[in-house]
Amino acid sequence: MDLNDIFQGRLTDQKWKRLGEYLKGRQIHAGRGITIQDSSSSGTIISAEQVEQIPPTQAPPFSVLAIRRVPESDPAEYKIQMQEGWVIDRYTDDSSNAVQFHEVNLDGVAMSTRPRREITVLENEIVYVQYTTTNEGHINNTPSISKSTSEPFSTHHAPPSGEGSGSAGTYYVKLFKLVIEDNGPKILVYQQSDIEHSRLPTFRNLGGERYIHKQWSEDDDRYDFRTLKQIEPTSGITYGKVIVDATGDEIDAVNDTIKFSAIAQKPDSDDPQVKVADNGSGIITIKGNNNDATIRFMDCNSPQVAVGTLVFKDGLLTTTSTDINVGECNDSGSGGGS
Asked: Quick one: CA torsion of 11, 17, 21, 22, rounded to 10 degrees?
């Protein structure tokens, strides 16, 4: 009902009543979930209906479902029931299921077994999940529930790296701790969810010779790779660098490719006498000009008597001794003979 409807046609007592109701704001159209009630004094009460909370269908993984004291136990023992949980392992190779779920055992039986099994816990005991892995970080046993009065210490797996074979891992994931407050048990929660196991990636060096990847450093929590080093001659000597210097900062994208200088001979137009040959299989050969020669020095005072010989092979001198005297020398150092 609006004003346009009220004032259509002639005025009547009914229309005046409707106008009064309209001005008092009684024409309220409540939506879903809204309740309208007349006040006991005057006016109108508008309120939202109470929404019923739907309880969760299942408790979180590894949460405590029930706890009871063992009668007449001294020291006090408590029987605890828990919601089952899983340890999740992820594989990246094609030969295995990428996501694998490992159900956790309690006293050698899967936690999903019914009726539920109970674990007996004392004051200040910590309940945890324990499991082991290979050096690649994959779970290799059935995870199980255990307990201890001291906090368990996990050791992370170390992947094979460099020449090292790595090491296996032992993991303890805390779930909760039982404490006593005001003469009653209290649960200190550490985890109420499935356990996502974390693996470290594995690097390897293919082929032989020197390894670029050195090792996984447990102390520094990082992978170590070797650095290429260039041995440079002493100052003042002209030389060419085998490893080309970086352009700007080493981290820049332009340096993503490590460049090496090439060994080259002079252009053919310069008639080079030292040659460089590449067999295409990784062997570079430095050689002469392939010219062989023999220089024989004869003593002219004693015909047919050779006093020295120089032999050149592939353009290079091969004679082991170069101390050659020709003729006889006087004290001034001039050569004798004719």
From this structure: 0
pTM above 0.70, yes or no: no
How far is 229 from 233, CA to CA, in rounded Å? 13
b/e code 231-251 from CB counts within 10 Å (16+ = b):
eeeeeeeeeeeeeeeeeeeee
Domain boundaries, the chain: 64-196
Alpha helix locations (H) across the chain? 3-6, 13-23
* Helix (H), strand (E) counts: the chain: 2, 21
Mean pLDDT across the stretch 96-118?
A: 94
Can you read off the two tokens belonging to residue 164? 């090292």
Decide: 143 and 194 in contact? Cβ < 8 Å: no
Q: What percent of the chain has pLDDT over 70?
A: 82
**Is the CB of residue 309 less than 8 Å from the CB of residue 296?**
yes
What confidence tens digit (pLDDT) does each residue in 244-278 have?
999 999 999 999 999 999 999 999 999 999 999 99
Which amino acid, 152? Answer: P
Q: Do 109 and 117 meet the contact criterion of CB atoms below 8 Å apart?
A: yes
CA distance 126 to 13: 81
Q: Is the pLDDT of residue 35 over 90?
A: no
Please, are residues 17 and 27 in contact by the beta-carbon 8 Å criterion?
Answer: no
In the structure encoding, which two tokens stand for residue 32, read together? 């879903």
Written as six digits, the tokens of 64 are 């405590």
